[in-house]
Design brief:
nucleotide-binding, alpha+beta, 2 helices, translocase, 42% helix, ABC_transptr_haem_export_CcmA, ATP-binding cassette domain-containing protein
């Protein structure tokens, strides 16, 4: 998730982009078939957008669903 070195930092002290990556990492650890993502590309960098796009593609390729707002 691109958060190496921040394991001991409280989430409240992370930047908006880092907080978004934490939320996405939590999602990726679930087995939820449906992902509902509210403005998922907000506050993440280009690499994060690419990573999220790949994850969504893999999720849907495996039969999952994604709803974006």
């Amino acid at each position: 998730a691109g958060l190496a070195g921040f394991e001991d930092v409280p989430v409240a002290r992370l930047s908006a982009g880092q907080q978004r990556r934490v939320a996405l990492a939590r999602l990726w650890l679930t087995r939820a078939a449906l992902w509902v993502l509210d403005e998922p590309f907000t506050a993440i960098d280009v690499n994060g957008v690419a990573r999220l796009t790949r994850r969504m593609a893999a999720h849907t390729a495996q039969g999952g669903m994604v709803i974006l707002t």
